Amino acid sequence: MSSKTVNQKAWFLVLPVFLMVAFNALIPLMTVVNYSVQETFGDNVFTWAGVHWFQEVMHSERFHSALLRNILFSAIVLTIEIPLGLAIALTMPRKGPWVSVCLVLMSLPLLIPWNVVGSMWNIMALPDIGLLGKAINSLGINYNYTRQPVAAWFTIVLMDIWHWTSLVVLLCYAGLVSIPDAYYQAAKVDGAKRLAIFRYIQLPKLKHVLTIAVLLRFMDSFMIYTEAQVMTGGGPGNSTTFLSIDLVKTAIGQFDLGPAAAMSLIYFLIILFVSWLFYTLMMKNEEN
Fold first, then answer.
1. What average pLDDT score do residues 1-16 get?
2. Which of 155, 202, 210, 277 is most open to solvent, judged by the fewest CB atoms within 10 Å of its CB?
3. Where exactly are the structural domains of the chain?
4. 256: pLDDT strictly greater than 90
5. Are 268 and 284 in contact (CB under 8 A)?
């Protein structure tokens, strides 16, 4: 028998990646863990606090309120963006010159930086001079997102839908064009209707794509910060103060590093757990 020699030199090619991950993720994470179990004083003096900050955060009404806002926001945008993105992808052409036009138009919102998106909608939604705000008020609806919590929520949700539905569209479109034509030809021979084709061919084939879309959109929406911070700053009042905004206020505004570190770790674990739960449920009946 001939023995095959394994070349381990390939590990040197991925070594820079491991070092970058360690520098950009592991080291900051260890710093956050260190702050979360200690009390910080001036002159770089630390005292052991144990799980005190975690208990304080978990029993904080402020944390619970921000968490509920995050859950509600993610639920709203996922409920709208996933079906809407899938519907748009189904109507897009598969062949011809309009394919490139549609793909470019769908990609444009994703190319705009998050802070610019917040600034754009901030100006556009102003009740006196903004295109959106003035149009809504001209219909006889009292709209002012700077003073009305419902209007602020409506504007942020609408902004997120405009910004991120394109991602769902592009993912679903890529999944649709990858379905072999043989499936459609067989359905045509059997006389299947449009709804039957969607239910028995397209939707099952898009299962993995939709799983990725749900996970990406959940993580992005649950970690929303820049757009909401630029647009409302967490107001009016605390109506749009999500966990990320509250975390920055605690860490930078109040300089409470211990509670902020504990909150960030709890925040991370919530995202990790819910993402795992989403993936497990959506892939539960997956065939090997």
1. 72
2. 277
3. 11-48, 52-282
4. no
5. no
Q: Please state, in angstroms and rounded to a whole number, the distance separating the CA atoms of residues 228 and 66.
A: 13
Q: Which CATH architecture has domain 52-282?
A: Orthogonal Bundle (1.10)
Closest to 193 in 3D by CA, of 181, 180, 184:
184
**Residue range 126-135, pLDDT digits in tens:** 988 899 999 9
Which residues, 6 or more positions from 165, have their beta carbon under 8 angstroms from its beta carbon?
80, 81, 84, 85, 88, 109
Who contacts 109 (Cβ-Cβ below 8 Å, separation ≥6)?
A: 117, 162, 163, 164, 165, 166
Amino acid at position 38, single letter: Q
List the Cα angle 155/158/164 in 5-degree steps. Answer: 135
Q: What is the pLDDT, as a whole number, of residue 288?
A: 46
pLDDT digits (tens, 9 = 90+) for 133-144: 999 999 999 999
List Cβ neighbours of 280 (8 Å cut-off, separation of 6 or more): none
Q: What is the pTM of this model?
A: 0.88
To which H or E segment does residue 123 belong? helix 114-124
125, 143, 169, 174 from 89: Cα distances, Å: 28, 32, 5, 9
